[in-house]
Write a structure and sequence with these properties.
Largest sheet: 6 strands, mixed
Oligomer: single chain
CATH superfamily of the largest domain: Endonuclease/exonuclease/phosphatase
Order of helices and strands: HHHHHEHEHEEEEEHEHEEE
Strand content: 15-25%
Distance between the termini: 61 Å
CATH topology of the largest domain: Deoxyribonuclease I, Chain A
Strand order of the largest sheet: 3-4-2-1-11-10
Mean pLDDT: 92
Number of domains: 2
CATH class of the largest domain: Alpha Beta
Radius of gyration: 21 Å
Helix content: 25-40%
Number of strands: 11
Length: 299
């Protein structure tokens, strides 16, 4: 039994370490691979289960093998989930927020987190009942809405329009150049195409198109906000992470946003270029099945 327990620990520990470190090398076979990457941080719990056979084996080799995925998990995730220290690169400030309103049927009031945040820019997705957003909309003199995505701003737009991202121009994405007191900011609001039955090709095509547009955008300050329908660990996010920065949560942790009642993954993002992120947080629930995000930026 001890030999069997040691064998189980060694084999499963090494497999777990390989998945954590090399999940992008696993063939993309639809829902299975996407789900694995979306919930990748939770694989660390498997190491806890492997403690039982490791203890029963009384084997130094088993204990060494058990430590391998634990160390790999720490190397992959800990640098991004530690509490951050505020850093600034200038005296100019900009506050932004994003919220998917899916499942939201109430009326926002000033006590709700999205309004209380009082951000300079607010990105919305799944905007279906604007009459319920009267108090929020009244705070922003400049607004652009395309289909079910919207951008609310305290500052005027130099230009704004819907984005044609592989055929989703009518309701999934928009771009605006916002004229802040300290210069223009190029802002993108996106709602990644839905994933159906494990087929994420439409989402990938849409996000790949957006990545190419970002690479060609000459703006020194750039923001991309919204529900990407992709977690930070999904391979489709690599193209964004190579160009832009994201802070999960200034207080530490993964900053999970979905589902709102018990968040286990993070399909929502605020990505930026040309800014220092002085604070990043997950907003309190407002009745949607997503939690919102906010960033305080300096430049």
């Amino acid at each position: 039994m001890r030999v069997l327990a040691a064998t189980v620990v060694v084999l499963f520990s090494l497999a777990l370490a390989l998945i954590l470190a090399g999940h992008r090398l696993i063939p993309d076979i639809g829902e299975w691979t996407m789900g694995l990457e979306s919930f990748l941080p939770w694989l660390g719990l498997l190491s806890v289960l492997l403690l039982i056979p490791a203890i029963r084996s009384r084997s130094a080799l088993a204990w060494f093998a058990w430590l391998v995925p634990v160390l790999v998990w720490a190397l992959v995730f800990v640098p991004n989930i530690l509490p951050g220290t505020a850093s600034t690169t200038g005296s100019n400030k900009l506050s932004v927020a994003t919220q998917n309103l899916q499942g939201y049927n109430g009326s926002l009031s000033s006590k709700d987190a999205l309004i209380a945040q009082d951000a300079d820019l607010v990105a919305l997705q799944e905007v279906k009942t604007p009459e319920a957003l009267d108090e929020l909309l009244a705070k922003y003199p400049y607004q652009e809405r395309v289909g079910t995505v919207a951008l609310l701003s305290k500052y005027p737009f130099k230009e704004s329009a819907g984005l044609d991202l592989n055929g989703f121009s009518s309701y999934r994405a928009l771009h605006a150049t916002v004229q802040t007191p300290s210069g223009d900011v190029s802002v993108y609001v996106v709602h990644g195409a839905s994933v159906s039955g494990g087929d994420h090709s439409a989402r990938d095509e849409m996000l790949n198109d957006l990545q190419q547009r970002l690479a060609q955008d000459p703006a020194p300050r750039l923001l991309v906000m919204g529900d990407f329908n992709a977690a930070p660990t999904n391979r489709i996010m690599d193209g964004f992470n190579n160009q832009l920065q994201e802070k999960l949560s200034s207080s530490g942790g993964f900053g999970f946003t979905w589902p709102a009642k018990f968040p286990v993954t993070r399909p929502d993002h605020i990505l930026s270029k040309g800014f220092s992120i002085t604070d990043s947080s997950v907003l309190a629930p407002i009745g949607s099945d997503h939690l919102g995000l906010s960033n305080n930026l300096s430049y």
